[in-house]
């Protein structure tokens, strides 16, 4: 790290030493003993501009305090039938770890329907997974591998992506904005697999709109991406939809132990049990928990993401024929551009 970078971190650290409670407490929860590494993430997200990174981090801390994000892992989505419905329609899970110790998160973009619950439950679930990753998964990986690990890999399965995805763009933009504004630089690489024609068409218009830093993180792999992914992770850590061509991210493919989207997968069982345990401890301490879903302030998307969403909407509309029928989106038409 160069002298200029070290000076930027020093300036940023000096500014953060001046904050008071409750922002100081939530900052401690974020950095988890690694304040400088956290400052670097926000500096990277703002091209090493200290003033902009400082504003971004303060906005993040205020958002966390106002929405009680530090307590979101005390808040189970109940009843369990509702949580199961969320899991079946918001496909995300932990499939394993890379050879460098980075958690591998799998996301079924194409087959996630987001139609079994209200938006606030999907947002609550997503933030809970982020917080569990940061407070439990990453510290555990750091201890296991003997070095600080604060990022993950994501494998995005586009199987089943259709033009009807237009209806999900608003929710996906909200989730992406929450990630970018409050959990910056937590993903090292995004691997896109099983990409059908509709993705390829949208990617061509989105790619030029992305910042170079973001573009470098995205790799569109051929087919299921199995051969390329095996260069960075062992077979056991491959998401189930990458293990053989044509499997896709079906909600029911494979045994529960192998399908990381399933509520019966160890990751989701451990996550749900952790939340229930934390809630129980909190209540036994005489601190009642208000029932109902977490109501999180939804951020306005940054200008870049708003432009991307508009471009995707425009491209999806173009792909509809004049009679309202969808064009073919057979996965065999995918390309790797």
TrEMBL record:
- The source's superkingdom equals Eukaryota
InterPro entries for this protein: CRAL-TRIO_dom, CRAL-TRIO_dom_sf, CRAL/TRIO_N_dom, CRAL/TRIO_N_dom_sf
Signal peptide span:
none
Tell me which SUPFAM superfamilies the record gives. Answer: CRAL/TRIO domain (SSF52087), CRAL/TRIO N-terminal domain (SSF46938)
Q: Where is the CRAL-TRIO domain?
A: 79-239
Q: Which residues cross the membrane?
A: none
Q: Name one Pfam family in it.
A: CRAL_TRIO
Q: What is this protein called?
A: CRAL-TRIO domain-containing protein
Organism expressing this protein natively: Nepenthes gracilis
């Amino acid at each position: 790290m160069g002298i200029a970078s070290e000076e930027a971190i020093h300036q940023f650290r000096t500014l953060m030493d001046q904050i008071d409670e409750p922002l100081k407490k939530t900052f401690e929860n974020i950095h988890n003993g690694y304040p400088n590494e956290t400052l670097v993430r926000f500096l990277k997200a703002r091209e090493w501009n200290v003033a902009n990174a400082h504003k971004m981090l303060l906005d993040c801390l205020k958002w966390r305090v106002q929405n009680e994000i530090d307590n979101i892992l005390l808040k189970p989505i109940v009843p369990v039938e509702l949580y199961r419905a969320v899991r079946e329609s918001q496909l995300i899970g932990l499939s394993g770890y890379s050879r460098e110790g980075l958690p591998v998160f799998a996301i079924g973009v194409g087959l996630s329907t987001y139609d079994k619950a209200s938006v606030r439950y999907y947002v609550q679930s997503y933030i809970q997974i982020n917080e569990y990753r940061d407070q439990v998964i990453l510290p555990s990986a750091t201890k296991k591998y003997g070095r600080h690990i604060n990022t993950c890999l994501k494998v995005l399965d586009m199987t089943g992506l259709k033009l009807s995805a237009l209806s999900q763009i608003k929710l996906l933009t909200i989730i992406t904005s929450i990630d970018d504004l409050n959990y910056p630089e937590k993903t090292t690489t995004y691997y896109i697999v099983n990409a059908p024609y509709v993705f390829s068409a949208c990617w061509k218009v989105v790619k030029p709109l992305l910042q170079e830093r973001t573009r470098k993180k995205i790799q569109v792999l051929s087919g299921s991406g199995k051969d390329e992914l095996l260069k960075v992770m062992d077979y056991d850590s491959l998401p189930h939809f990458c293990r053989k061509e044509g499997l896709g991210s079906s909600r029911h493919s494979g045994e529960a132990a192998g399908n990381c989207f399933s509520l019966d997968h160890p990751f989701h069982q451990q996550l749900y049990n952790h939340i229930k345990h934390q809630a129980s401890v909190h209540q036994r301490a005489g601190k009642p928990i208000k029932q109902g879903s977490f109501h999180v302030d939804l951020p306005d998307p940054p200008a870049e993401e708003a432009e991307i969403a508009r471009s995707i909407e425009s491209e999806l509309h173009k792909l509809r024929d004049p009679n309202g029928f969808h064009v073919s989106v057979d996965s065999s038409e995918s390309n790797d551009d």
